[in-house]
Amino acid sequence: MKPNIVRTTLKITAGLASQFPKDSRPQVALSGRSNVGKSSLINTVIGRKNYARVSQSPGKTVTINFYDVDGQFYLVDLPGYGFAKRTESEKRKWSALTDSYFTAEGSSVTAVAQLVDLKVGLTKDDETMLHYLGEIGMPHFVVCTKADKPNKTDRKKQLDKILASPYVAKAQGVVLFSSLSGEGKEEVIKMIFDSLN
Question: The domain that contains 124 carries what CATH number?
Fold first, then answer.
């Protein structure tokens, strides 16, 4: 039976690998730099305004949030990367936690939604993450957030650049998304559901 994505609850906030869920339900993870719009995307797809909190101090939280979707799978919010003010020890903690998430024994991650800010384009950190996902053979798709921000010409230019990137070549699709207008919402939900099978 198709999950009812509206029935989503924050189940676990994990700062350590030992706190990850122990059940084998599939997981779809959201990855992206700090301030790319992961919380806004969660709020949009589950149809609730402020359920996933948008951080006032991007990059400060090094936790992985597991959202239980209708008791059928987890939508997993990975901590944002690439935040300049983060200390070296915070960066190390981010790397260790994120790495253990992907390499944990019995991991049930089925796919990753890689979020990229359309206005900013692919950053070095985005490329590193996409390269990593390709190397470990993790199915992933790219969601270009804040698609309402650039004007029509810039939007096409930025999208063409992203599509031409060798780092995006292994992605299973690219979606334009805006939490403000709702553009791409149904496509993102479809890609999440498709990746569970």
Answer: 3.40.50.300
